[in-house]
Amino acid sequence: MKAKTLVDKTKKYAEKAGEIASKINFEKGKAESLRLIGLYHIVTGFVHKK
């Protein structure tokens, strides 16, 4: 799937950054990538509200 918007591109880059951070054992980088992915879900409305 191709990234269509800036938000989608951000998620794509965050996922790739998370993979790289895990590979080199860079915990702060992994945390930042997860934060960005979480923000993506908030912005796009994928977070389920109770």
Task: Give your account of this protein's structure.
This protein is mostly helical and 50 residues long. The protein has one domain. Helix content is 72%, strand content 0%. Helix 1 (6-23) runs antiparallel to helix 2. The radius of gyration is 12 Å and the shape is flat. The N and C termini lie far apart (30 Å).
- Share of helix, binned: over 70%
* Overall body shape: flat
| CA(first)-CA(last) distance | 30 Å
The arrangement of helices and strands along the chain is HH
Uncertain spans: none
How many independent structural domains? 1
What is the count of β-strands?
0
- The structure class reads mainly alpha
Beta-strand percent range: under 5%
State the helix count. 2
What is the radius of gyration computed over CA atoms, rounded to a whole number of angstroms? 12 Å
| Integer average pLDDT | 88
The biggest sheet, with number of strands, parallel, antiparallel or mixed sense and barrel status, is: none
